[in-house]
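User: I'll paste a sequence; please echo it back and then give the predicted structure.

Assistant: Echoing your sequence first, then the prediction.
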Amino acid sequence: MIKYEIIDDFTDTAPTEELLESLPQWRREQALRFKQEQGRKECALSYLLLEKMLGWQPEFVLGEHGKPYVKPPFRDEKIFFNLSHCKAAIACVVGDGEVGFDVERIGRYNERIARYCMSDEEVEQIVNAENPDAEFTVLWTKKEALLKLTGEGITDDMKTCLVSDRMNGVNIESVFNEEKGYAYSVAYYTNK
């Protein structure tokens, strides 16, 4: 079972300094690595969203490839999660199995970048789309969600990852929010 939440309106949130003060020290240090205040705020809000979804303050345990998971207090189980944020939204997914999530603001399509990270078929799909900017972003979020799911992160195999054997037993759901200007994808295993 997985559940996820997206927040795409930051207007009613506390000031960044207050958010940072509410974080555990290690997460505050991580948020402060962002040079811009917006990045600090997104990092803080994404962690606080995870905390809200779990109902307790998590401690991360590193798994294979350094991908973190959390252990609930007083129970011997793993809860998997993934956080993502961009200037348009923050997101968190939790599940009882591995999960991957990516949210990206819709940007301008760049053919050079697309040819570097997309297959020829995907480039054609983007070029022929009604909204190439959105199509590129949706495909990108699918790839990144898949690679977060597997714990590999961005690899040299970006072009073929959506048609590789890594897709066996994987479901990827994607949404394009035209009104708010972002797309997201969540990836999870269907056979585990």
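The chain has a mean pLDDT of 92. The radius of gyration is 17 Å.
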